[in-house]
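Q: What changes when adenosine monophosphate is included in the input?
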Amino acid sequence: MAMNKILFFVDIYKWLFNLNRFLAGGKVTIFFFILQCKTQCWTQLQAIYTLFMKIFKESESLNVYLNTQRIIANKVGFVPTMGALHEGHLSLIRRSTQTADITVCSIFVNPLQFNNTEDFRKYPKTLENDIMLLEQSGCDVLFMPGEKEIYPDEASRIPHYELGYAATVLEGKFRPGHFEGVCLVVEKLLNIVNPDFLFLGQKDFQQCIIIERLIQLMNKNTQLIICPIVREESGLAMSSRNLRLSSSERKTAAAIYQHLVWIKEKLTTDNFKDLQKKAISELEEMGFKTDYLELANRNTLELIDVCKKGEEAIILIAVFLNGVRLIDNQLIN
Ligand code: AMP
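A: The predicted holo structure follows.
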């Protein structure tokens, strides 16, 4: 009897043990099932999350994000802008997405690079559209800092790089302090983003030369990639400032490009000074006010009158049309 009782309890124990194992197994299965679902959902959510462009306003959070991304994304491409984006900007973004693993764009209208307060005040702002265009172009990260983030104190507004001759001519001459302002913001942005590639447009050719020097002075390992000028059908170089032109002014503004092309063609036979004089007088007759129209060595920006055979040169122009400042250039050879 005693033995039967013992066997009975052993059976009950076994039964309970098996039930427990079954339930535990079930729980484990359910646990794994939930875990798997969660992991799948998580990966899907992550995939969806990575599809969206991230927007940062603070450099610290951008820095943390980029540092974690660098574990999987090797190369970071960077496109600094002042917003009011157009196809010219987007061509830089696309070039970055083809070259780098992660593309960062910044939008910051830098007050320190405007030597004219009216120009700064009237600079076009189209933020909602910019965000949409960047998303569509495959930009991964948008950095849009406020002024305090870039210039936290007075000391951060003081220029501290010796930019040399190239910063004193052309734009440097007509917009005093412009390149110092450009370098202050670009230095700050380069230190925050730490990009492997920096994409700039040939439209601001002198700016490219100055920033190349800044990269050297900063001892950065960033490779500068200069992208071709994107033009409207008429030949007018795309620019955020074109938004300030009426449709008839836009048509007139195409004359800038036409005159550059004309000078380039004639330069093989004619003297530059004669071509310069004729072009300026024609443009001014059409209502333009000229800051400069110059021929320069492409590497040093030394102003020249004659383009020797094989010399890498560039024609650069800056004009006002109804108070809107427009720049353009043409490479020679
Ligand atoms: P911005 O917003 O004017 O400071 O320009 C930001 C960047 O876009 C600069 O590197 C410009 O040179 C470049 N960019 C502006 N317009 C054009 C254009 N029409 N074609 C190519 N790049 C451009």
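Observations recorded in class: The longest helix spans residues 2-51.
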